[in-house]
């Protein structure tokens, strides 16, 4: 099948202040040294890769004292020009939400502030061609289920709740990704049995990833419908995606992985 790329607009934030000073997910360890300059170089390669594929790349200014701002996907969830804001679970990241709100409001987007905990596009995925336009929403570790209803009201799209059960996959975007406007790739065991049945029903042609690739942040990817930007460690998943007609584009984000994220965590999609 011929896969067609669609030009996208993305928001990224440089890891100028990136470090690991606390533990809020199973991947973080303050005893493991972080090379911030190396993280900036890897992030720059990601930014240039996305721009080189023809996509618009906007940047959010990093702020001192917020080392996780590089994970820009968590700051909001945007559909049809409406930004549903984030409210972080952990106080260490709380101030990031205001930085994202200022970005959207200053740029003229319609911003809907949240009233319950949700971590933006980290726990939401949008597929405009799936069943007339569908939002997938994760819960179990960060985002509260009440946020699913709030997002549905804010964005006017049906929301399907999916329960995450493995703490290594604490956000939806570590366990599932949209490959195009109507299909996904995911790691089944990250979800409850009932949520797995829902995914099989909604996406019978989905690409299924093994645990090895999922644990290497292979599902934390960004796809434009043809080009799939993913972690260099996931060669097996890259071959599977190529066999399905997609074009894998590997990037090395090993330094940022120390904070519990990879490609998708660094990229918020701006859907106008």
Structure description:
The chain has 272 residues and is α/β, with parallel strands linked by helices. The chain has a single domain (9-269), classed as L-arginine/glycine Amidinotransferase, Chain A, CATH 3.75.10.10. It is 23% helix and 21% strand. The chain contains 6 helices and 15 strands. The chain has helices at residues 36-52, 96-106, 146-155, 193-202, 211-215, 235-243, and strands at residues 9-12, 56-59, 76-79, 82-85, 110-112, 124-127, 134-139, 159-163, 176-178, 184-186, 207-208, 222-223, 227-231, 247-251, 268-269. The strands form 5 sheets. The chain has a 3-stranded mixed β-sheet with strand order 2-1-15, covered by helices on one side. Strands 3-4-5 form a 3-stranded mixed β-sheet, sandwiched between helices. A 3-stranded mixed β-sheet has the order 6-7-8, with helices on both faces. Helix 2 (96-106) links the parallel strand 4 and strand 5. It is globular. It starts with 8 loop residues before the first strand and ends with a strand.
Question: What's the SSE blueprint?
Answer:
Layout: E1 9-12, H1 36-52, E2 56-59, E3 76-79, E4 82-85, H2 96-106, E5 110-112, E6 124-127, E7 134-139, H3 146-155, E8 159-163, E9 176-178, E10 184-186, H4 193-202, E11 207-208, H5 211-215, E12 222-223, E13 227-231, H6 235-243, E14 247-251, E15 268-269
Parallel strand pairs: 1-2, 4-5, 7-8, 10-11, 13-14
Antiparallel strand pairs: 1-15, 3-4, 6-7, 9-10, 12-13
Search tags:
single chain, 272 residues, alpha/beta, L-arginine/glycine Amidinotransferase, Chain A, three-stranded mixed β-sheet, 23% helix, 21% strand, globular, Amidinotransferase
